[in-house]
Input
Amino acid sequence: MLAYINMNIDQLMQNIGSVLSSDLLTPKYARLERRSPTEGHCYAAAEALYHILGGKQNGYTPCVASFVENEQTFTHWWIRDREGKIWDPTQSQFTSIGQSVPYHLGRGAGFLTGLPSKRAVIIINRLRQKNLIEFEFEHILAHRNCKLLNSITGLGNQNSIQVTSENTNKASGRKKFIR
Output
């Protein structure tokens, strides 16, 4: 579980919006003419927000709506807290052009992976690098998945984190890596 400190959620969502860039867009959205800087970023931005806030353990649910615009099907992602309040770091892609966000079409859903995706990790790391978020590292260290710890803290290389010397292969003397 990740948890941010010293910031309200509205400020956190603004900070997430400030680190979004075209390199984070999927090919479908990269090809489109974007009407807003946050357009096409909803999945990764909502996923980053979800993990920063502690996800399901802290009462947050990912939500998605499918809708048709100009004969193309699109989706929009956000998160909802246990009281039903909507937290949407990319709502401006609709509101900046005078459209309503299609929350009425939404339903609770899960993200594609249990851990933050590559794009969500990039967003989280950009926020950390700009000192826009801080983490309570005890929560990260208590997390059982070393890949998440590696992704968020930037330890090791992209695919592995070295484990303690107790895990050294006695026959070869080499340290094991978790992939």
Observations:
- The longest strand covers residues 61-69.
- The chain has two domains: 9-143, 145-179.
